[in-house]
Design a protein that fits this description.
The complex is a heterodimer of chains A (about 260) and B (about 350).
Chain A lengths: L1 H28 L10 H8 L1 H35 L4 H13 L2 H12 L11 H29 L3 H10 L4 H12 L1 H17 L2 H5 L5 H11 L3 H26 L1 H10 L1
Helix pairs in contact in A: 1-12, 2-12, 3-6, 3-9, 4-6, 6-9, 7-8, 9-12, 11-12
Chain B lengths: L3 E10 L2 E11 L4 E5 L6 H9 L6 E6 L2 E2 L10 E4 L11 H11 L4 H14 L15 H14 L4 E5 L7 H18 L3 E5 L2 H7 L2 E6 L2 E6 L1 H6 L4 H6 L4 E9 L4 E4 L2 E4 L12 E6 L14 E12 L3 E8 L2 E8 L12 E6 L5 E2 L3
Parallel strand pairs in B: 3-8, 3-9, 6-7, 7-8
Antiparallel strand pairs in B: 1-2, 1-4, 4-5, 9-10, 11-12, 11-14, 12-13, 14-19, 15-16, 15-18, 16-17
The chains are: A mainly alpha (about 260), B alpha+beta (about 350).
Amino acid sequence: MMTRIAAWGAIILGVLYFLLPLVGMTEFSLKMRRGVYSFDAYAKVLGDPQFQQTFGYSVLMALATIVFGVLLVVPTAYWVRLKLPAARPFIEFITLLPLVIPAIVIVFGYIRLYNTSSWLPMTGSITGTNILLMMGYATLALPYMYRSVDTGLRTLDIATLTEAAQSLGAGWITILARIIMPNVLVAVLSGAFLTFAIVIGEFTMAALLDRPAFGPYMQILGANRAYEPPALAVIAFAITWACMGLIQLVTRLSKHSRALQGMEH
Amino acid sequence: MAYLDITHLEKSFGPNRVVKDFNLGIEKGEFISLLGPSGCGKTTVLRMVAGFETPSSGNILIEGQDILGIPPARRKIGMVFQSYALFPNLTVAQNVAFGLKVAGVGREQSDARVAEMLGIIGLPDLGQRYPFQLSGGQQQRVALARALAIQPRVLLLDEPLSALDAKIRVSLRNEIREIQQRLGITTIFVTHDQEEALSMSDRIVVMHEGIAEQVGSPFEIYNQPSTRFVANFVGTLNVFEGVVVDANKGTVRVGESDLQLKHNLAGMSAASPVSLALRPEVLSLTPESRKDADISGKIVDLNFLGSVIWIKVEIGKSTILIDMFNSPNTKPPAIGDKVKLHFASSDILVLND
């Protein structure tokens, strides 16, 4: 009985610890108009052309990062599982590096390697810098994307499915596109939503590469306004939670995941 | 030259030689089983034919064409796997149509072929189901239809019945054999189950430690095993030791009895040991007209199994098992009884190592 009470106590304490600041922040964001609650701060943020521009830019960058990440990670994780199982610990270590190397170190490395006087002057043009930023984002999202896809692949007998497809005349692209990708779609989407959430909130890389992304906009707004920053933070939280919710929704509704559960049984 | 010719095939994984000088010619439409225990190299041979393993040396030819340089996707060899390997994201019909779509077959033609295949495997109405909605037996039928849909030159079956329960296994093996005969497709079937191999095959290759120990019809493999391994692996066998009395006349002493073999023991000298074997079903406790030989022993164990009674008889230093049909009018013997085992001298197998 005592352990139950202690467990509930711990849960309530934890919930309060996380929710109280959120509630406080949300409440403050609604107090722009004196004496009454209003959505003025939200209206102001959403009506700001800079918000629309930076948010739009970050969404585009997130989508590009997701596409690039999927094209990079799915074939790599598949090939490592299929042909190079001994290399898995090494690849996992590489994919974990972005968690231990700060983004600022990565971006300074990029700037040193790809500046205007380097052999590949990517920072010399807007498109080049955008590509560099997208690759940086893909690096930051790598631990999540790789793990999601690798977990998805673990539920499949990819060696036998590959051989079955080969015996039916399929080449590598057909196997990846028609067999592997659809069967790890839920895992890929999980990685994609996490990537989206990371890119939307990322500050360091965008700021140091001087790109008009949502992260630097939030920072500038936070430094100069009172009510808009908490409204923006609530919006950012809502986007992240929506991504999480979508992961859950896709997982539950996916025909394929039900098929895979059926396979496991 | 045979339709599928495998010559001097070898495969090593590091220092381990898993397939050693494997030779086999398979005629068009023949059903061949590779039979052997785990690790004998049978699946490796199959995978080399499919193209999933590269031989260390040797050749594989289909209709005279060397297929070793051809990637698996272009060999036109169908394969059915133990784990079914159906694509979970595709329906039954899409699974069967997969190879046709890859080959660029038109929609109408493909639909007709899928319907034909589903008809052949007896699941014409399950095209829209997903694999997870099917039983194991149904999934394996779909896997068979998928492999057959592309009209392969050779069909490879890698222990396709192992994951199924006993009842389904028996019915599906009959269905597979029936479909194979109807379509006349050249088939290699890998199994460790002797009953499956004996009941389905035109010929059986018994493999042991990477070597094809014997190739022959089920009748030959069962009744005339050429090595001790084949004799032991296929069916139940009573192996007992004897001593050569007269090699030219084929006389051997077992316990206290002298046995006269139907042939001489060329190359053996008097007093040298010899391994003999008898199937349990050729032995009886009562004399019969064609059973011209007997040996004496003592019953040491007896198991009543309903229609059959298993009796263990000690002869010299060896123990022999007999299958005796239960008859309500005949009282079974008891443990400790001294008995004579009757058999035809032509039933005695002399085992070579």
